[in-house]
Amino acid sequence: MTVEEWLDAYARAWREKDAEAAAGLFTEDGVYRDHPFGPPHLGRDGVRSYWSGVTATQEGVELRYGTPVVAADRSRAAVEFWVTMLNGGADVSLAGILYLRFDASGACEELREAWHFESGRLDPPPGWGE
Comparing C-alpha atoms, which of 57, 50, 14 is closest to residue 32? Predict the structure, then answer.
């Protein structure tokens, strides 16, 4: 699986609130960090559990990616993301970056998120994602 294919599958899993599909993108011992100071979600079970909870209140997810920055050996990537959605019935925007590390098959060994959350549906600024 290429980085771009992985990102497309991740976006599809998010839009469809499909925790099983999200978990399937990770290695058995993958690490998912949604917060730098919080505990990681470990393995596919950890990803599945996290996703089941976090997406439960989300509706109408619209996700965009910037142009990924990918290591020559495709083992690491970073990509900006911009999301607008209803969360608990309120319009919100989420802007952030995914830092990703992959195994040779393209499964994610580690994902680290950094993001900001704002009320309302906001558009990215000019030049975003380039």
Answer: 50
- pLDDT tens digits for 107-119? 999 999 999 999 9
Strands 69-70 and 76-87: antiparallel
Residue 116, Cβ density class (10 Å: 0-12 exposed, 13-18 middle, ≥19 buried): exposed
Strands 26-33 and 108-119 come out as parallel
pTM for the structure as a whole: 0.94
Q: Which residue has the tokens 């990803």?
A: 47
Residue 46: closest CA among 25, 66, 30, 67: 30
Domain 3-119 in CATH 3.10.450.50 = yes
